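so im writing up the methods section and need the Esterase/lipase/thioesterase family protein record in one place, dumping it here so i stop losing it
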Amino acid sequence: MSAPARAGRAPPAPAELDARPVELRSGSGSTIRGWLARGHPGAGAVLLLHGIGASAAEMAGRARFLAAVGYSVLAIDFRGHGASGSAQTTYGALESRDARAAVEWLRAALPGERIGVIGISMGGAAALLGPVPLKVDALVLESVYPTIDAAIRNRARAWLGPLGGLLAPLVERLMLPRQGVRAADLRPVDRIGAQTAPLLVLAGAADPYTPLAESRALYRSARAPKALWEVPGAGHVDLHAFARTEYERRVGGFLDRRLRVQTARAPIAEAPIAAATGRP
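--- predicted struct ---
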């Protein structure tokens, strides 16, 4: 379980959100820092999980959008990122303990609120890789790799061309194991089927790091209710910044259905989701 939050050094939050600093202890062995912006009672709460090499600062656009329609928002820096100290990244494995500690802290801080998670790339992997599924009410996964083998291979090819494919096994041996984490521990595609929360998968249709075929395979491995949004023209980029209006319609509509109690509902325009992708 995470320790109670106390004021401390924290990543900067958007000034207009009137957020307070949060500090909690994670099972990863790290002290995790972030910030919480409180929303309307009954509107639900959303945990934002950034990607590798990023921080809570990269989630500011999503935080503003969510706070503007009443959600409470918790954004954290993973271990070894931003204000959460120095540590080797494990590509989602130990970071999954940070995600779990943050969910537990949020549930204790806002009892009775329904909780959603938006996980970006490594953040989405961290939401899936724990020993048991996160106890949340909605899960949004953006640009999440299905296996670390595929993630390394795709990046090597994108950076080095055909030679990258040949060097990928060597790169993987240099990267892993790390802090006891092996490639076999980094397979979100094997864990997503255990997740029972309604799921929305987002994928850039032109993503060279997580090709569309791999995102579709991840989606197929998930149980219903689920939906898939393939973002036309998007690579491995900030999908909110890339397609802001449509992102806010789709993600906002999904969270609205799953997190708000009836008395706290706010008008959020919702885009229709094609029947072929499901409708959670």
